[in-house]
Design a protein that fits this description.
The protein is α+β, with helices and mostly antiparallel strands. 38% of the residues lie in helices and 13% in strands. The chain has helices at 12-19, 23-32, 53-67, 72-78, 104-113, 123-130; strands at 10-11, 50-51, 89-93, 97-101, 117-121. Strands 4-3-5 form a 3-stranded antiparallel β-sheet, sandwiched between helices. Helix 1 (12-19) crosses helix 3 and helix 3 packs antiparallel against helix 6. The termini are far apart.
Length: 151
């Protein structure tokens, strides 16, 4: 689960860019209550709205489902109640509505029970925002010779 740190505080304009939507679309979806900034609401004129990583994932997923032909109004109202923090995929289905999934078997089961579905993979955008996973160095690696750039 990604925790909000200073590196993951995302201003509204950047959130819109990351989710591949316009600032106007972001503003509309926030006013509808579908994806509101969870870190700072930015009320009043000149108020600064700050979004979390999960907020941006929700924005991008809503865009993805809208492009796939799903009714934004229906999915938008379900989105605030959908947990994306630990999810790998979001699935929009004719029977299940909007569901967060982190298990391949659960994903497969959804596929067999749905007449129509669309999947949004959260991993690429999450990695783009949070950066690569931290790596640990084992004691055996400390004697390695660093690579040098050849001229």
């Amino acid at each position: 689960m990604v925790t909000p740190t200073e590196l993951h505080v995302i201003p509204a304009a950047e959130a819109a860019d990351l989710a591949l939507i316009t600032y106007r679309q972001l503003d509309h979806w926030a006013r509808q209550g579908w994806v509101e900034p969870s870190l700072q609401a930015g009320s009043g004129r000149g108020g600064r709205r700050l979004y979390s990583v999960d907020d941006v994932l929700r924005l991008a997923a809503l865009r993805h489902f809208a492009k796939a032909g799903w009714p934004v109004k229906d999915l938008g109202s379900q989105l605030p109640h959908t947990d994306v923090a630990g999810a790998t995929w979001l699935v929009a289905g004719t029977e299940s509505g909007l569901v967060s999934v982190d298990d391949v078997d659960e994903l497969h089961e959804l596929f067999t029970n749905e007449e129509r579905f669309t999947v949004y993979d959260l991993r690429p955008l999450r990695a783009r925002i949070t950066g690569p996973a931290e790596t640990t160095v084992s004691p055996a690696d400390t004697d390695a010779v660093p690579l040098r750039r050849l001229a």
